[in-house]
Amino acid sequence: MHDVPQLPFDAAIAAIKAQVPERLQSPRVGIVCGSGLGGIVNSIQDLHLVQYNTIPGFAESTVPGHKSSLAFGTMGGVPVVAMLGRFHPYEGHPLRVVVYPIRVMARLGIANLILTNAAGGLNPKLAVGTIVALHDHLALPNMTGMNALLGPLTSPTHQRFIPLSDAYSPGLRRLLFLGAHHLGLDPDAVTEGTYAWVSGPTYESPAEGRFLRLVGADVVGMSTVPEVLAAREEGLDVMALSLVTNAVVIPETYRDIRAEVAAELAGKPVDLPPAQVVSHEEVLEIGKAKGEVMMKLVEYVVSAIP
Ligand SMILES: O=P(O)(O)O[C@@H]1C[C@H](O)[C@@H](CO)O1
Ligand SMILES: Nc1nc2[nH]cnc2c(=O)[nH]1
């Protein structure tokens, strides 16, 4: 396999192998832990952490809820590597840096990638805490010049034109729903849907939320899609799970300030609606509260991959 120009793959692999026992150096499954979902590491046995700042080419995650280390170990006896902390374009990381760890994990030998993220719910049927297995995505940045695969071909043996109609593995999703059944989860606890990728770091304005819902997205977030593209280019099977941490506020009407002022001037009482704003603290809190279900599902899928 040839390397992406200017990315120090050989040095990264050497640095990792120098810190990880040989039995764990060729993981089968890669896992990316989303905001507040780092607790997945608790189900890794024989744990060995490698700090990102010791791996050539890796950046540091600057987002609360994202640590900056790779976790090597086993899950149900299967060798795995988990990213405790990912890179987002809104932190200022170039897209090739955002997806570099995925390419490094591919070079370590993973065949399957499980991505997790925290996301806002656009579909009103999705309660906070629901886990959504992505069956599709809608990425306005991809369609308007922010595609992670723009630029020189990754290597002469990589494909230039990557289909995305089959990006999210039906086989892995099948294992997920078998897992939900075996774990006795409520049928509504895990479902499937379409993820809208936005660059962030702002959360959606009401009109943006309304637009994304109208064009078919069920959840919205600021990560995952660049990683999916790189993973597919590397030939990995991909599953992506969103934890709905908040409902995106999509009001049918706006506050009518003009009417409120008129009522005030006429001496009539004015009922003010409660302000609804999302915060990263809330996202992390729900991640912590509901992360265990995500962890158990990931554990089940990893152990069940043939
Ligand atoms: O890394 P993920 O996608 O889980 O993080 C989400 C999206 C933003 O980075 C952040 C917003 O609260 O959480
Ligand atoms: N864009 C976006 N990302 C999120 N991550 C967690 N919640 C949200 C949200 O409401 N919007």
Describe the model:
- It comes from Mycena chlorophos.
- This is Purine nucleoside phosphorylase.
- Its EC number is 2.4.2.1.
- Keywords: Glycosyltransferase, Transferase.
- Belongs to the PNP/MTAP phosphorylase family.
- The chain is an alpha/beta fold and 306 residues long.
- It contains 9 helices and 9 strands.
- Strands 5-8-7-6-9 form a 5-stranded mixed β-barrel.
- A hairpin with a 2-residue loop joins strand 3 and strand 4 (78-84).
- It starts with 8 loop residues before the first helix and ends with a helix.
- The model has no long low-confidence stretch (mean pLDDT 94).
- The structure holds ligand LQZ7MJT6 and guanine (GUN).
- Residues 34-35, 63, 86, 88, 117-118, 200, 221-223, 280, 283 line the site of the ligand O=P(O)(O)O[C@@H]1C[C@H](O)[C@@H](CO)O1.
Main attributes of the structure:
306 residues, alpha/beta, five-stranded mixed barrel, 9 helices, 9 strands, globular, binds ligand LQZ7MJT6, binds guanine
